[in-house]
## 1
Amino acid sequence: MAGRPEVRSAPSDGYRPIMPSYTVAELAERVAGSVEGDTELTLTGVAPIAEAGPAQLTFVQSDYYRRVLDAARPGAVLAPPGMEIERTDVTVIRVPDPQLAFGRLVELFHPPPPPPVGVAESASIGRGVRLGANVTIGPYTQIRDGAQVGDECHIGAYTVIGESARMGQGCRIAHGCSVLHGVTLGDRVVLHPGVRVGTDGFGYAQGPSGAEKVPQVGGCMIGDDVEVGANSTIDRGSLGDTVIGNRTKIDNLVHIGHNVEVGSDCMIVAQVGIAGSVRIGDGAALAGQVGVAGHLEIGAGARIGAQAGVIGDVPAGAVYSGYPARPHREALRASAALFRLPRLVQKLQALERALNSRANGPRASEDDDRKRGAAS
C-alpha cells in the first residue's frame, strides 16, 4: 500500500463558508452573456424567480417565468435573446440557455465545503491498495485488497471499495456506498449515498429442487463524468461487462440489470428499471418509472415517456410512450380513444334499444321503459 496520508480533521466549530459576491459584469463573463442594464450591480446570491430580492440573480426561460417576473423583485435575470423584458429596473444578462447558465452560476454562490484530506483512523485499508494524492477516506470505510483509488478522490464514511476495484481521478463517493470487487470507475464519477455498483445480476436456472443461482462473474465499467443518484443499483455482468458510457446521468432509485450497455450522454430518471442485456444508444433519455424488458435495443437519441413499458426495440431518434410503449402520437391517439369509450358504449346501448323497439313494436319499447324505471 502507498503511504497512508495524514489525517486532517475539520475544525470543531464546523465549516462556515464566506458568502461570495459578484458584479453583473463578472457573472456575464463567466457565462459569455451580454448585459442590458447595470454592469456594476453587486449580487450576493441566487434564488427562485418568485423569491429573488434586489441583490439576487434568477432566470426566465418562458412566458410563465416572465409573468411571474412582473410581481418579483430580482436584481438581475438571465434571459434568452429576443425575449422581451418590460421591467426597466431589472438588469438582464442575455444567454442562449438561461437555465444552463443559471446552474453554472449557482455553484459560485454555494461552493461545496472542502473535505478534509486524509484517511480516517477507523478506516480499513487492505493489502496492496494504491491510494493517489490528496485522497479522503471517511470513517469506517473499507478499501479492500488490491483496490486502486486515483488522485483527488473523496470517499465518504461507511463505504466499501471491493477487492481489485479501480477508481479514476477526482471521484466523489458519498457515504454508505458499495463499489464491489473488480468494478472500474472512470474519472470524476459521482455516486450519491447508498449506491451499489457491481452487485450480482438476477441470474437463476430451474433445477430439480427449484431455482439455482447462476454465478455472476462479469465486470462493471462506469465511464468518465457519470453521476449516479441515491440508492440506485448497477449489476455486474453475468459473464461479460455491464457498461455505463461517459457523461451519462442516472437519477435516484434506478435499477440497471446485468450486461446492460448504456451509451454516452444518456439521461435515466428516477425509478427506471432496465432488465438484463439491454443496449441503449448514445444520448437516449428514459423518463421516470420506465420499464424495459430484457435483450432489447433502444436507439441513439430515443426518448421514452414516463411510466412507459418497453417490450420491443425502439428505433434511433424515436419518441415512445404508453404501455406497452409505442410511437408517442400513436399512444396519444390510443389514450384519447380509451377516454371516449364510455360515451361510445352509451351510444351503442341507445342504438340497441332503438333497434329492439323497431323490431318488436311498441310493446317492446314499453317493456324497456318499465325495466329502466325499475332500475332507477
Note: The chain has five helices and 40 strands.
## 2
Amino acid sequence: MIRAAVAAGHPATAAAGAEVLADGGNAADAAIAACLASCVAETVMTGLLGGGHLIYHDATAGLTRNLDCFVTVPSGSGAPMQELRVPFGEELVHYAIGASSCGVPGVPAGLGELWRAHGTLPWPRLVEPALRLARDGVPMPPAHVACLLMLEPVMTLGEGATIYAPGGRLLAEGELLQQPGLTAALTVLQDEGPASMYTGTLAASLLELVGERGGVITATDLAVYRAEWSAPVRVHYAGRNVSTRGGLAGITNTLAQLVPGSGSRGLLAALEGGAAVDGHTTNLTVVDASGNACVITTSLGLGSGDWLPGYDLHLNSMLGETDLVRAPLVAGERMASMMAPTLVFDADGLELAAGAAGGTRLRTALVGTLAAILDEGLLPQDAVSRPRFHPAPDAVQAEPGVDSEFLVELEREGRTVRRWPALHHYFGGVSVVGRSGAAADPRRSGGVAAA
C-alpha cells in the first residue's frame, strides 16, 4: 500500500494538497487544491490561464483515465506575435509572445471536470488553500528565482513588472511573491466555479483584454471548450504495466525500446531522436489512503507577457511555442503536448504515480526516474535527485555526477558532451509517490507533504 502523500514543484503546492487529504478529501480533491495552489506559488511555471493533462486512478472502480485539458486553437484573428529569444542555459530559444499567442485555456475546465467526476469535498473548500496563499504571498524558492532571472524579458513586461520586479528589482530568494489580483481571481472562481473562465466574470475580463491587445480568442471559443476523458496508452516495462498518454513525449515508445539493465548506454539509445519542445511547466502527484491517484501537469508555455488587469492572471503563449506547432493550426482543435502523467501497476495494484515537467527534457527526466526505481530499485528521492544526461540535437547535456567513463566514451566516438556545473532545472522536474516513498525534484525546489 502507498502512504498518502503529495509531491509537487513547490512546498506550498504540496502542503495545499496534504491539507485537503487531512480534511477527508480524496486524491481528486487534493490534486485540485494543489493545482490551484500551484497557480499562485508557481506562476513562473504555470497559471490558471494555461493548459494541462492529468491521469486519474479510481481504486474502488478499478478505473484509470486520462483527462485532456490542454489549450485549443482559437478561431479569431489578431495582431502579429512578438518574437523573443530567451537564454536557456547556454542556448538561445526562440519564442513568440503577445496576446495573439494565447490559446483557449483549459486548466479551470480540467479541474472542474475532475471535481465533477471524482471529487467529494465542496468546490469552495478546494479553493481555500490557494486563496490563502494569494492573500499572504509565497516565498520565492531558489529554482524559481533562477527561472525568473532567465525569463525576465517576458515576466517584467507590462503588468508583470510590478509583480516580479517590485521597486525595479527582480525578486530574490526568500522574498514574497505578492499577487494581490489573484485574491480577486480566486474569489470569483470560488463563487462562480470553473465556468467563470468560460462564460462568467473571468471570461469577460479575458475577452476584454484580448480585444484591446489583438488577441485571437472569441466568446464562442471559450463557451464551447470542454475537458476530454480518454483511455490511457499502456506499455509493459520491467514486469509492470505502465499507463500514460500518447503525444510528443513518446513515453511508451521509449520504454518499449529501453532494455532493463542496459544502463546509461541503453537509456541514451532509447532517448535519441526525440522532439525538441521547450516551455515552462510544473507537475504534481497525489495518492490518497484508499489508493486513488492523480498526476497533473500544467503549463503557460513561456507566457504571453499580458496579465488580466485586477486579476494578475498571466495569459499563456502556446500558439507561440513554435516547436508545438507540427502542422497547420485548426480552430477548435487541441494543440500537441509533451505532457505525460504516468501510473505504474504491478500484480498487487498501483505501485507508483509519477509525472515530469521540462519540455523536451520531460521524457528524459521521467523515463530515467522510472527506470531507476522500477529496474534498479532506487528509492524515489534518490532516483529523482540522481544526475541526468539529455541528448539534445547538438550535444549530450550532462549534469555533474553522470558516469564520467560513459561521457568520455561518447567523446571518443565523436559526440559532443556539454558538462553542466550543477544540477539545473533545464533537466526537468519530477514528482513521484510510490510504495517506497515520495519525492520532489530539487532542480525545481519541489516539496513533499504526507497527509
Note: Residues 74 and 221 are 6 Å apart (CA to CA).
